[in-house]
Specification:
three-stranded parallel β-sheet, ligand-gated monoatomic ion channel activity, D-Maltodextrin-Binding Protein, domain 2, binds arginine, 2 domains, alpha/beta
Length: about 270
């Protein structure tokens, strides 16, 4: 009798333990992505970006994507000891949904916004900037962006970017045109289909260097930080990436890359 009791107790405990382990294991694999270990065991990291955004990610004459973000992605792959795979998206807004499985993270001059943070997680910032306005040769008499907020004026911004949000909020009297890409916005300003373009400061500054007849309006329209975006739910990965950003700065590598990509940016005043 006592022997039977013992067997029953052991059986019961085994069933409870198996059930408990079963639930915890399936919960782990279903709900917590393990990007850091997956990337290392696969031997590659898939970085999403949207090229055409100088000097962060753009194509050189031989069609290779280069820039500040690309160099950061290279450093990241080195630190993880894996191969770097870059996936270029034509539409900026596709980057957030690509984090659903197509890519491991986004390094693409992405502003950390509270709305995006409902959908993805952001690391600590790695760059501070904001939005500015550039006008074409038709509009060089304009000094202040408020003068552009008038009926008849056309302002271009890029679909799905912070430039579009701020244009919608600040330019309630002008007409806001949405370009599908960075290149399309530049084309519209070149063809004089629009009067002004609102976008991130470093890109605007790189434009004034190639278009000396255009004028950058001095006031900044917003203050923004760029962060690496990762899928939600993987705190382990986020913590490691924050250490990576901090180490990049401590080692002096960040300053080296900053000088390489930003030291030449300067807009001379337009007469
Ligand atoms: N910083 C802006 C944003 O997050 C625009 C970035 C555009 N970047 C690019 N790679 N095209 O909305």
């Amino acid at each position: 009798m006592r022997k039977n009791m013992k067997i029953a107790v052991v059986l019961l405990l085994t069933v409870i333990a198996a059930g408990w382990c079963g639930t915890s294991r399936s919960q782990t694999s279903q709900t917590v992505p393990q990007l850091l270990s997956n990337i290392r065991s696969m031997g590659k990291i898939r970085v999403g970006l949207s090229s055409g955004f100088k000097p962060f990610e753009y194509k050189n004459e031989s069609g290779e994507i280069i820039g500040f973000d690309v160099d950061i992605a290279k450093e990241l792959a080195n630190a993880l000891k894996v191969e770097l795979v870059i996936k270029d998206y034509g539409k900026y807004e596709d980057l957030v949904s690509a984090l659903g499985g197509e890519i491991d993270l986004v390094i693409s001059g992405m502003t950390r916004t509270l709305d995006r943070a409902f959908l993805v997680n952001f690391t600590d910032p790695y760059f501070t900037t904001g939005l500015m306005v550039i006008v074409n040769e038709k509009n060089t008499k304009i000094d202040n962006w408020r003068q552009l907020n008038a009926p008849g004026k056309k302002i271009v911004s890029v679909e799905g970017t912070t430039g579009q949000d701020v244009a919608d909020k600040k330019f309630d009297k002008a007409k806001i045109i949405r370009a599908a890409s960075d290149a399309e916005a530049v084309q519209m300003l070149t063809r004089k289909d629009v009067d002004a373009f609102i976008y991130d400061k470093p890109f605007i500054e790189s434009l004034c260097m190639t278009h000396p007849n255009w004028k950058v309006l001095q006031q900044q329209l917003s203050y923004e930080v760029y962060s690496i975006a990762v899928p939600k739910g993987d705190m382990e990965f986020l913590v490691w990436l924050n250490y990576f950003i901090s180490d990049l700065k401590l080692s002096g590598k960040y300053d080296e890359l900053y000088t390489k990509w930003f030291s030449g940016l300067y807009c001379p005043p337009v007469k």
